[in-house]
Amino acid sequence: MERCLVNVSNILTKFEKKITIKLFNLKIMNYSTLKKTVALSFVSLVAAGAAIAQSSSDTSHASTTAAKIFGGRAQYRTWNIGINAGVTSPFLATGGTNGTTDYTANFGYDLTIRKQLAHSFGLQADIMGYGSQVGGTNSTPRAGVSSFTTTIAYAGSLDAVVNVATIDYLRRKNAINFYFTGGLGLVAYNPVLTLANGTTIDNKNKHNGSNTYAKEMFVPVGLGVKFRLSDRVALNFGYTENFVDGDYFDGIKNPATPLHKDKYSYAYGGLEVSLGSSAKPNLDWVNPVAMMYDELNDPTLRQEVQALKGRVSNVEKAVDDLKKDSDGDGVADQFDKCPNTPAGTVVDGSGCPLKIPAPIDTSVFMRKGAVVQGAAVPTAYANIQFEFDSSGLRPTAFPILDATSADLRSSKKTITVAGYASSEGTAAHNLRLSKDRANAVKTYLVNSGVEAKHIKVKGYGETNPVADNSTEAGRELNRRVEFKK
Question: What is the pLDDT of residue 6?
């Protein structure tokens, strides 16, 4: 690492000497020559930085980080501080109008403090140092002005920094990051004009009092490239165009173009250092794609997935065993106490055959009616059956009651309607229930036209059963109303 830094220092020193010699030899340079020189210099620096970054990162490609994809910023170093130095100019690489025909190379330097908020985005405070200057000359004096030199007291801005090469699909660990910057700032400056006759005009005492600087808002827009020397140190080169919100930065006001805004550029190089614990990786150089691959390829995770598959398989087998029904009686084998029952056998919840009592011959309790075309005709005075604990008439009782009503209306006979109940519940309750059932039948007959004086009502409760109350079939028969003459 020390050897790499020495090499970088030697390269930068030699480069500075060459640039300085050129700048002093070429005091006046046209805009086309400036662009070619800056472009060539920038390419040379990028090539040198790439070579150094490649040599420093070759041994680190196989390294991994303990950070997790969704572990948050706390697992990284996110604060960075940098110091840069370079050349300023009133001209921009993107073109535009200027107050002078040529530029004068001047020295500038700045300090940056950046908070990296994500892999590809950060916020940066950029402060250009006191004494940085921007200058320009006229090959032929314009409006009596031969040249200007603007001294910057400070130029501070808050910039958004967007990394465009954070995710590297070719290598696991990034070695080069390209980035764009943009923000808003305030610059304090003082332009000094040199007239064609050699007179100097210092404007420092003309801004709201003595010894004060003019202040303007400005918008910095730039791009750059970083070369990873280590996980903590990066070599940084960039170019920023600064658009000043005013026409006084160069001290030359042009009445013909009142809406003209001044600007200046800054090409720089420097070092950036990541602050924080060395146990944490620098968020700038972490490749999230490689991290995701490492997490998915983690042997421990693979073992957990295989174990989970085994547990799921066991659960599926247990469910299949629960559903298995070898004899097809509807009861799973695990709960079937009577396996291998014959097909079609009615079984209970334990899989054993149900003991169905012999059917009761109800013909002895009902009068049989005539049969017409194979169907039984409703018979008058047949017993009326009821639901459990209910005195409501079933729809099946209506044909019988209609036939009984017709016979009573024609014969004028007097009958007794006797109500009964099964043995569930208390005797008193069953007595009331039997009377309610008898009254329900009487009400129906009276509503159908039978005179009430021909119908007597009697409730017998659970007495005089016609079937066994120990079975449901028998209890159903005992919930009845009989007709007695």
Answer: 41
Beta-carbon contacts of residue 388 (< 8 Å; ≥ 6 apart): 422, 424, 475, 479
Q: Token pair of 440, please?
A: 């329900």
- How far is 121 from 162, CA to CA, in rounded Å? 5
The residues facing 161 across adjacent strands are 122, 181
- CA–CA distance, 439 with 428 (Å, rounded to integer): 17
Domains, in order of start, for the chain: 2-59+73-296 (2.40.160.20), 325-356 (no CATH), 367-484 (3.30.1330.60)
The pair of three-digit structure tokens given for residue 58, joined into one six-digit string: 């070759």
How much is the pTM?
A: 0.52
Question: Cα(125)–Cα(435) distance, rounded to whole angstroms?
Answer: 98
The span from the CA of 352 to the CA of 346, in Å, is: 8
Positive or negative torsion for Cα 362, 363, 368, 371: positive
Dihedral angle computed from the Cα positions of residues 158, 182, 137 and 35, in that order, rounded to the nearest 10 degrees: 140
User: What is the average pLDDT score of the chain?
Assistant: 80
Strands across the sheet with 455-459, in order?
A: 384-385, 480-484, 415-419, 455-459
CB distance 58 to 74 below 8 Å = no
Backbone region of residue 22 per phi and psi (left: phi > 0; alpha: psi in -120 to 50; beta: other values): alpha
Is the per-residue pLDDT at 360 higher than 60? no
Query: pLDDT grade, residue 357 (50/70/90)?
Result: low
* Residue 437: pLDDT band with limits 50, 70, 90: very high
Instruction: Give CA–CA dist 438/420, Å, rounded.
Output: 8
The mean pLDDT of 115-124, rounded to a whole number, is 93
Q: Give bridge partners of residue 80 from the DSSP assignment.
A: 114, 274
Q: What is the largest CA-CA distance in the chain?
A: 149
Question: What are the tokens at 119?
Answer: 């892999």
In degrees and rounded to multiples of 5, residue 267 shows phi and psi of -105, 130
pLDDT digits (tens, 9 = 90+) for 284-331: 888 887 777 777 777 777 788 888 988 898 898 888 877 787 777 778
Q: d(Cα 468, Cα 464) in Å, to the nearest integer?
A: 11
Whole-angstrom distance, CA of residue 485 vs CA of residue 475: 25
Contact 158, 113 (CB under 8 A): no
